[in-house]
Amino acid sequence: MSVRHCFSLITRITLFASVTATLLCTLVATLLMVAIHRFGTESLTAEIVADGGRVAMQVERDRVAYPLAQNPFRHIQVVDSQGRVVISTPRLRDKPRMAAFTPANKATAKSVVCGGVFPSGECDIVIAQWAYREGGNWIVYSASPAISPWVDPLLAALVGGTAVMLAAVITYLGRRIATASLKPVTAIRAELDEINETSLSRRAPVPLGDDEIHDLAVSVNHTLSRLQAAVEQQRQFASDASHDLRSPIAAIRAEVEDALLAPQETNVTKLGRTILGGLERLQAIVQDLLTIARLDAGSPGAHDTIDLAELVAAECRMRHHMRNRCEFSLELGAVVIGDRLRIGRLLTNLIDNAERHADSSIVINVRRAPSGGRDDGRRFPHGAAVLEVIDDGPGIDPDKRELVFQRFIRLDTARGKDAGGTGLGLPIARQIAETSGGTLRIEDSPRGARFVLRLPLHENTALPPPGDPGLSSGSASPGAHEAM
Questions:
Q1: FRET pair for 314, CA 20 to 30 Å: which of 240, 257, 287, 307?
Q2: Nearest residue to 250 via CA among 278, 287, 280
Q3: How many CB atoms are closer than 10 A to CB 216?
């Protein structure tokens, strides 16, 4: 386990704040002491130069005044042109010259001298200046102990103590801020720990403000809402499926019990047909449930090249005994990419639905169309293959057009016309359309219901020019057997 995972987030933030504060405070304290040291050294050097200059002027005028320096830590020597010490402060009396360097061509020269005439371990700033007298140039040396790096122990202690206190305060504030910032996260985690399958309506607390934790809480609640909706949908789905499965099972059981109670009066053929009808309904429901389970699981489908017009023509050829007249207008070349079996199932469900509700005729249209607005441009970049299935039945009210795509939902008109419907055909059709990258909607129609399927055209499919006559149209009467 890495070190970063051994500590809590608050501890890591506190350590980061502590290390950063310590480094910054140490740097600031060091820079401050260096600046003070430099300023003090420059000020001391200026004083040494002033004291030496004063004595040099007195030597030039042969009017040397005593004492040479007022400061007891100031050292001054006057050296004649022969290199002999002529005058000095008391602490350097009878001692050789403090330095050997001369100002050369400059008015003054500066050097730091350690040891020599000075006490052991002491370093002094020495300034050499010329003093012009008859008979040669004399040199005035003025010196003072150099300022230590920490300038003054009290000052160093004050600066160091302030730096330590500042680092401690920053560390404390960093921990407080981290704790306060992560407190909503703790509340969110505690609430999430309490949420289970019996309390899906609970939500994580959303903190005030507009920060990342607020956005996290909002996203968590959105996720919980979606999970609640999915769970409720699954529960409703299971309830509806149980209800729809119970009806044919109860009918089959009743027929079998009647036959067992009165075997002499039972017609085996009639009983078999009755049971077979119930079994067919059970088979249809189970098949639809398996299809929905595969679609919900997101199992990938095939990527076949499908011409919608050819698929519609093949489906119509297989329907030899349609109750209603079927008219179709098929534009060839509406090529899409998808699973042929799933698209065929979608088409079958739409035609079965239209046949159940049509009064006398069904119209099927296939055409190519350019993409519409911005959303269509993203969904259908190369245009759309449009399939319309229109019946002349009672139609669907606009406020119920989305309702029919919910699972196990059958409107009253549907129940009256087809008591054996599963209520899963249209939901399966829409789910197939959406997994294929398209849409399935109910749009306005002068009469009856108009289901419109749009699928993305294959990228190599060209849109028809205006007035293109490339259409295949025809019709089939009820009971017709001819190929379409």
A1: 287
A2: 278
A3: 16
Q: What are the φ and ψ backbone dihedral angles of 417, each rounded to 5 degrees?
A: -85, -30
Q: What is the pTM of this model?
A: 0.55
Which pLDDT score is estimated for 413?
A: 53
What whole-number distance in Å separates Cα of residue 452 and Cα of residue 445?
A: 11
- What percent of the chain clears pLDDT 90, i.e. is strictly above it? 24
Beta strand pairing status for 325-331 and 361-369?
parallel
Backbone dihedral region for residue 374 (phi beyond 0: left; psi -120 to 50: alpha; all else: beta): alpha
CATH of domain 9-145: 3.30.450
CA distance 449 to 372: 23
Counts of helices then strands in the chain (DSSP H, E): 9, 13
CATH 2.70.70 fits 212-295, yes or no: no
* 8 A C-beta contact, residue 219 and residue 235: no
- In Å, what is the CA distance from 440 to each residue of 63, 303, 346, 355? 115, 20, 10, 18
Q: Which residue has the tokens 């801020």?
A: 177
Do the Cβ atoms of 75 and 98 come closer than 8 Å? yes
| The one-letter amino acid at 241 | A
CB-based contacts of 265, cutoff 8 Å, min separation 6: none
In this predicted structure, what is the pLDDT of residue 44?
92
Q: What CATH number should be reported for the domain whose range is 302-476?
A: 3.30.565.10
In 3D space, the residue among 112, 100, 113 whose CA is nearest the CA of residue 139 turns out to be 100
Would you kindly state where each structural domain of the chain is located, as residue ranges? 9-145, 212-295, 302-476
SS3 of residue 146 by DSSP? coil
